[in-house]
Amino acid sequence: MRGRELAEQERAAFARTSPLTALVRHLGRDEQRWLTCALSPLPETFRISLHRSDRAWTVEQVKALGAEALPWMPHETAFVMPFERGRATGEGQRMMALLHETGRITRQEAASMLPVRLLEDNPGQLALDLCAAPGSKTTQLGELLHPHGVVIANEPVSGRLNMLVSNRSRLGLANVVVTQHDGRHFARLPPPGLDTVVADVPCTGTATTRKNRDVWWDWTPKEGRKMFKMQVEISGRGASLLVPGGTLVYSTCSLDPIENEAVVAELLRRHPYLELVPVNLDHLVLHPGLQTWPLLDETGEPVSVSAAQNLPYFEPHHWPPSERIAQGHGEEEVEARIHQWLPRCARLWHDDQDTGGFFVAMFRHRMDASPEGTAQVYRTRRAVRTTPGWSPPVKQPPTPDDNTVVQADPEVVGEVESMYGLDLSSYAVWQRGKRLNIAPPLVKDRLFDPESPTNKGDVWPGGTFHPLRVVHAGLPAFTLKKNSWRSRQEAVYVLAKHFNANIRDIDEAVFVRLLCGWAPLVNEFLEQVSMDPLPEGAFLFRGQLAWGEEVLSVWIGARVTLMVDLNEQNILRRKLNLPWRDEEEA
Question: Radius of gyration (Cα) for the chain, nearest Å?
Fold first, then answer.
C-alpha cells in the first residue's frame, strides 16, 4: 500500500505541471477543481441488458449492492455503484462478475454511454459502429435497435475482433454483423446507405486520466495533431455512407480541441451536405463546443499563429474558424457558419458529474442535399451510360471458403427446424463452417441480396456480402457436434419459448439436482425421472420455476451431461438460493 501511495503522490505532483493540465487551464477550466477529480479513481458504472427476460431481477440484485440509477439514462438502464471501478469485494465482487459474464449487465464508463444515448430508436435502422471493439457502444446500440434494426460492428484490428465477438455473444444479440475494415476505407454496401453511423474514433485519451494513468506522462499537444488526419478520414467515410436524413455521431475521450472542434470544423468543410445538430440531454451537465481555442507548444503554452507554423504535425486545418478568416484561409461564409455552429457540440468534464471526460458532436445529412435519396458515396464523376438496354457489368466475387459467411443451406435449416420444432422463417440464417447463426431479415434484405455498385460503374452481384468483409453475421445459434445440431447457450436466451421438439419438461427437484452436479447414466436418469427413452446427442430440458420458465441444454451420451457454463449455473443457483458452485466442483 505504501508503494501505491508514493506512486499516487508522484503522479499528482507531475500532473500539476503537465502539458495536459496546462491545456485544461488554457481552456478556462478551474484547474484545481478539475485536478482533484481527474486524479481520483472512477466509480463503477454499468448498463442493464434491456432484452433479457430477468431484467427486473437483475435490477433488484444490483440495488441490493447499493447501485443508484444514472439520472440521464432512461428507465433504470444504467447504474453507478458506491465503490471505485474494479474495487468491489466479497459477494458483491462475485455477483458483479457473474452478471457481467452472463450478459445481464455490461460494465461501461458512464461518459462512453453518451453517443448512443443521444440516438433515437427508429424501427428497421441499419447502423454502423466504425470503431467497435471492445463492443460496449456496439451492444448498447444493438439493444437500442433490438429486435429489428441491425448494427454493423466494424473493427480493423484482428486482435481486438475477439473481444467484440465475445461481447456480442455474451449479451445474446442477434442483430449484430461483425466486419473487418480500415474505417477510413470502409467498403461500399448496397444503396441507399446507412441510417446511423457512430464514429467513436481512436484518440489520445486525454479525458481518461482516471483510468489510464500513463496519459499524464505520454501526452503533449503534438499527439493530438498527429491523430487529426485519421480522425477526419474515419468519420468522413462514415458521413459519405449516410442516407439523407441519417445521423453521424462523432465522439472522442479527449479534451483536446484539435481532436474535437477542429475535426468537426473540417468535416463540415469537406462534407457540405452535413449540418450540426444541437446536443442536449436532461439531467447531464454538458458544455457547448468551443468557437476558438489556443494553439499550444509542447509545454502546453499558447503560441502565435506564425510560431505555430513550426510546431510538429501542425497544419492550418487546426486553426479555429475565426483565425482562418483572419489569415485568409477558406471561404469566409463557410468559416463563419462553422464558427456559429460549433457550440452545438458538447464537452463533458470530469468534475461536473464525477465521470470521465468526453466530447460528442451530432451531424445530419441534409435531406435537400441529396434529392436522389442515396448516400453521397454513390455519386460518381464518371459518365453514366444511357444506351437503351445497357446494364452495368457484374463483377465476380471471390470464391467462398471455410471462413466465408454464406446463406445457410435450406436443407440444413430444415433439419434444425425439424429437430427442435422451430420455425426460423422470421430470421435470416447464416452458416460458417459447422455453425448456424440467426439474424434479423434486414441483414439479408439490405446487405446480402441487393447489388452493390462500385465507383467505376460496374456492380458486385447480389447474394453475397462482398465487398463487405463480414466475419460474423448474427448470433451463433447451433453448432454441429457428432452429427447433432447442439443449441448454443447464447441462443437459448432468444429461442427458449420457441422450442417444441427435442425438449422434455422436468420438475424443479430434477432441475436442482442437475445444477448441483448430478450427471447420471442415461438408464439411471430414466428410471429416477420416469421418462421415455431419450435420443442421443443434443437435447433440452425445460423447468417451471418460481420466477418462470428456464431451459437447460444437455448432451445425451452414456450420461446426461449439463451443457451450461459455470457462470450461468451460478446465476440459476442464486435464484434458487443455493450455494455457489466453484470451478473445482464443476
Answer: 27
pLDDT confidence of residue 330: 86
Domain regions of the chain by residue span: 2-107, 110-378, 502-585
Low-confidence residues of the chain: pLDDT under 50 = 1-2, 584
Return the percent helix, strand and coil in the chain, to nearest 5.
35, 20, 40
Determine the pLDDT at residue 9.
Answer: 80
Q: What is the largest CA-CA distance in the chain?
A: 90
CATH fold for the domain made of 110-378:
Rossmann fold (3.40.50)
CATH code for the part of the protein at 502-585: 2.30.130
One-letter amino acid at 37 equals C
Per-residue model confidence (pLDDT) at position 1: 44
CB 195 within 8 A of CB 122: yes
* Structural domain 2-107, CATH architecture: 2-Layer Sandwich (3.30)
d(CA 196, CA 211): 29
Which residues have CB under 8 Å from 45's CB, separation 6+?
70, 78, 79, 80, 81, 85, 107, 108, 109, 110
Q: Does the fold of domain 502-585 match that of domain 2-107? A: no
**Per-residue pLDDT reduced to its tens digit, 187-201:** 999 999 999 999 999
| C-alpha neighbours within 13 Å on the C-beta side of residue 361 | 30
CA distances from residue 8 to 24, 83, 207, 219 in whole angstroms, order as listed: 20, 19, 18, 18
Q: What is the pLDDT of residue 4?
A: 58
DSSP class of residue 183? G
The cell 439523407 sits on which residue?
244
Which residues are catalytically annotated? 253
